[in-house]
Structures are given as structure tokens and as C-alpha cells.
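ERR on first pass: missing label on line 2. Operator R.T. fixed the label and resubmitted. Corrected input:
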Amino acid sequence: MASYEDILLAIAERDPRVVVVTAENRAAIRGLPARLGDRFVDVGICEQTMIGMAAGLALRGRIPVCHALATFLTMRAFEFIRTDVGIARLPVKLVGGVPGFLSEANGPTHQAIEDIALMRAIPNMQIVCPSDEAELLAALPAVIASEEPCYVRFVASRPAVEHVVPFALGRAEVLAEGSDVTLLTYGFLLREAETARRRLEESGVRTRLVNLRTLRPFDASAVLRAAAETKLLVTLEDHLLAGGLYSIVCESLVASGVRAPVLPLALDQRWFQPGRLDDVLRFEGFDGASIASRVLRALRS
Amino acid sequence: MSAAPYEDLTALALRVREHVVRLATGGGCFLGASLSCADLIVHLYSRVLRVSPATLRDPDRDVLLLSKGHDVPALYGTLAELGFFPRERLARHLKTTDSIYWHPNRAVPGVEFHSGSLGHCLAVGAGIALEAKLRSSPARVFVVLGDGELDEGSVWESLLVASAKGLDNLVAVVDRNELQANMRTEELVPLEPLEAKFTAFGASACTVDGHDFAHLERAFSSLPFNRGRPTAVIARTVRNKGLPSIEGRADRWFVDLTEAEVQMLLRELHGGEQASLTSATKMVR
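pass 2 clean. output:
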């Protein structure tokens, strides 16, 4: 199966505007220096300079695809993204590695759990949150073809589910219909959400599963339909409560004048306990079984 | 040496200073920084930069970025005088019906990029310079930095990277007026030895008198100083140059003048008696 760098290389070979940039983060693009030559630019551990240079490249018609860990990309370089890329509305593509729980045992310095909130605060910044490698690869051509700046919350994990809807910016994927509860999620946690859905079904709860895929543009219609057709909305994310999917869903409901119960499963006012991924998920209550029991508890109360 | 060879530049710089003084009313502007770099901007646009209103979309044109941003009145004045946009447009300074405000933005013809947040444009300039290298374009990038701005770590980070990438088409031009918003640079966070700092970060550097066109000509006619290295030109300048009554004054950075004061300063620019300003200086920072 093709990898992220295979697809990125294929796009770059077709489109001479594409320049692959990194702040010394090469995990997903190790093979590209040899293939792309001077269109592979590693600036060293300088996230701010990387973004400023990417803005300069984009000003001259290039499409820079910038790589760094999600925390340092979105926070160390935030003002450069906002000021150089955002104000000029340049088509710079930001690829943030090991977001959310995927930082595992690194500790709070490496936990990108406010990246969505920050990127949402920049006008016109698109936010793409693939749930697995297949979705990442399906999203990449659309990300690069878009004329807007874009943040990709990089996830290249093994398949979360069998995808049933072709990728399109702003279009959610409804993986299962259901009339009791809707699980709304994005990114890596889709895998756990699918496990939770099966558990809930076993308990007699008819569960809808919606993979949002992109948080800007946002498929508000999928949320409004779920609010109308199911009794409880659950937002599930490895992100802080403030500014992530829960906020987006609530804003969408209020904007449409819709009242609906929403259960947020997110990190509230704290960083998560570092550890191996599966241990973190269990400890924090974000593995499929814990998610299912948290939803059941909410339904009973 | 006779000043005659630079008569045109001297006259242009005077007209630019007049524009700057006229912009310092009805809301005001950053007069001090604009007057310290006026000769630099005039020299670069007249003798160095390969750009004109006709080549503004040419991908091989030279690019100038004002990294410190608040000195933009000097750029507005120069661009207007050189025909990038009509001089009359300067009358719309600070009007919401136009985009001629306190910091640069691309809605003004000839302005290549916005700034205002310090420490950004050397990185942006490095990106433009790198892009020119990818195409083997002769385009060069000049980034005008304030000396106070050199407190920002991102300036030095960008210089490290520009050196690593061999961007000899990138020129950092420092407006070394030794004053930042409120303080003397050497009293707050000393920058000297400054030329040695640029050299240590991989640039080829020189220091010149930023108000002497012969000096500027010598520095900018031999770019790059070394193949494979970015260049740094440290231009020693004086805040509010051209207005002896307020030259070098730390408290005359941003000013909002009365119309009578504008007229006094215009006379002073032309060698008339020194003005006595009573308008309060607005401290923006």
C-alpha cells in the first residue's frame, strides 16, 4: 500500500509548485530528500523561520507543505502562522505530527490538545483531521489543490474502519445510522468510537457514528440531522474541551436555533497522563469500552 | 567629494521627508523611524532595486520588505514619488476608504508584504530568496530591519537558516539609529559588537553611514559581498534625521502634529529655523 510520502511525492512530481519543508521532522518523509532535490527544504529546528519562509515561498506561487510536531508547529510558530500565512491568506499547508493522544509518553510539552482551537482562530484556515492512513492519503490531493491555508492533524495509523464515503473537504462520513445516540468524532479516536458503537449496539443502544473528517469547512448539516434524528449527541476528541469539536458542534446548534443534549468527551482543563497509547486510552477513559460505558451512564441519568 | 552626483537622490529624499512630515498629522505616524531610514529607502529604490511600477509582477524583480513596519511612511513617500501610485493617494492616510495605515500591507502598490510584528520579514525574505534560487532567478531580496527589532530571536534564527542555505541573494539592511520605542538600544539590551554578530551567524557584513549616498553606493554596488553568504549592511542613522530640533530624541518616535507644527517642520526641513513642538508624543508601545 502507498504511504504518505509516496502520495506526496507523486503530487510533487506532477506539480512543480509543491515544495516539501520540514523543521527537522522527517519521520513521515524520509525518502523525499533524494527524490525531490532542492524542493525538499529542511530548515533545522526553527519552526518560526520555517513558517516565515513558507510564506515567502507561497508569495512566489509555490505550495509549501510544512512538517513539524503538532505542538511546536501550532504553538511555537503560532504567531507566524497567524501573521504571515493567515493575514496574507497564503496556501501554506501545515502538517502536524503526533497530535493528541498520539504523543503517548512524551508528556505535556508534546501534547497537541489545543491545536484545533488555535487553528480555528485563524480566518480561512482549513482543518483536516484524518482518522487513519487511508483517509490521510485520500485527503492529501484535496488539501494541496485547495487555495487556502490548511492544517492537517497528521494521523497515519492502521485502518480505523472501512471507509464508505469518498473524501471531500467539508463532508462528514456517516459510518452507521442509529436513532438513540450519535457519536461525533474525528481523527485517531474514530477507531475507539467504532468499538464503542459496537458495544452500545450490544447493549441495545442504536448508535449513529459520524466521522467529521474536516473541522473547517465543517459539515454542520450532518450534526443538525443527528440532532433531529437521535436523542443524544456525543462529541469525542483528544483535545481540550474549549475550542474543539464540542465548541464547533454547540456553535452550529445555537446558530441554527436547535436545542439538543450534547455529552462532551474531551480533556477538560488538564493535560493527559503520559504513557503507552493503549494504557493512556484506558486510563483517561477514551478506549472503546470506556467510551461506551460513559455514554450508557449519560443515557441512564 | 562633491555632493553633485547625488543631487537627484538628495532632492528625492527631501521630497520623501516632506511626505513623511505631512503624514504626521490627523492621527500621526512613526516620524522618528521613517526619517532615519528615508535616505536608505530612497537609495535602494533609486539605485539598487531592479523594480519599477512596470515590473511589479515580474517574478525576477528585486523585493524590499520593511520588517520593522512602522517606518512605512518613508516607503509610502518613496513609492508615490517613483510613480507606484499617485501622490494624491497619500492624502487618504489613515482613512478607512484606503489602506494607507501605520504598518505596510499589500493593498498599497509596491508594498510586497505586510509587517508590524517584529522579527518576521527576514524569514519571509529568506523564503522569497530561496524560491528565486529554485528558479535560478536573479531576483534579490532586501529586508530592512530596525535595530530594536534585533532583540527578537527569530531574526537570528532566520539568519542562521539563510546562511545554511547559502542565500547570497538576501540582504539584511539594519536601520541602526540606536533607539527603540522608548530606550537607547545600548542601555536596554546592548547589540554591539553588531557587525561581529552578523558575521558570526554566517553573513558578510559591513557598517556604513546610512545618510551618505556615496557610502551606500559603495556598499550596495558589490552584492553579494561573498558568494554563498547572505549580506548584512548596518546603516548608522539618526532618528528624525533632517529635523535638527528633534534629531536623536527618544521621545519623538510616534507623533501626531497640529497643522501649524507640520508647516514649521516643513520649513525646518528646508533649512528654516528650528521648530518647537508642543504636541504630546503618543507612546504606542
